[in-house]
Amino acid sequence: MLFSLFAVFASSFVIALSGALMPGPLLTATISESSRRGFVAGPLLIAGHAILELALVAALLLGLAPFFQLPAVFVASALAGAVILLVMAVGMFRSLPTLSLSFAGEQKKMNSPVLGGILLSVSNPYWIIWWATIGIGYIVYSRQFGLWGVAFFFAGHITADLAWYSFIAAAVAKGRHLLTDRLYRGLIGLCAVFLTGFAGYFAYAGIDKLSGLLS
To answer: For position 123, what pLDDT does the model report?
Structure first.
């Protein structure tokens, strides 16, 4: 059981990190705010992001708990998750030759980075798509291990976001020498490899469960 929970945490961490690494509104805000506030801007933005996602996970569990227990839901979410993870991995591989992490650009200063983290997350259509597909699929999977499974999934997910955006904040606060474009591309490529593996695992789990339903 403990090994299974650790596997949920580790896989959730890698999948979340893969999404966090790609440029988006939250990354841009982290760079901008860190240049003004220093390192603390990264954790504050992710605190808002985490509050929103914790509320979402709680709402999904409380409102859709019986729905998550249906075998057909497991099959559908696993297969859909496999496809989307594979699409993400292919997109990452294709972007590698020209990918660059820009530390330039200015934004209006936020009064509250925590509130900013909430608003930037909920206004990002890719965040909504991620939770409507991969996120729900992973909740369905982790719920096999009870509430502890969901807790380890969420912990892995948020730890990945916190680690990456804290690193970005530190890189900005100390000067961008901590993270070169070459290293950034290497991280993206490594995550793409992991995503391909997870896509295969999700596909196998879904097909295996479907075979059991049909037999």
So the answer is: 64
Q: Count other Cβ atoms within 10 Å, centred on residue 201.
A: 16
pLDDT in tens, 35-48: 678 889 889 999 99
Q: Indicate the pTM of the whole model.
A: 0.71
Answer yes or no: is pLDDT of 49 > 80: yes
* CA angle at 159 for the pair 153 and 164, rounded to the nearest 5°: 135
Could you give the number of structural domains in the chain? Answer: 1
DSSP category for residue 176:
G
Structural domain span for residue 206: 2-214
**Which residues lie closer than 8 Å to 164 by C-beta, 6 or more apart?**
17, 20, 21
* Contact indicator for 122, 52 with CB cutoff of 8 Å: yes
Q: What are the distances in angstroms from CA 31 to CA 101, 170, 172, 200, 214?
A: 10, 10, 6, 34, 51
Q: For position 43, what pLDDT does the model report?
A: 93
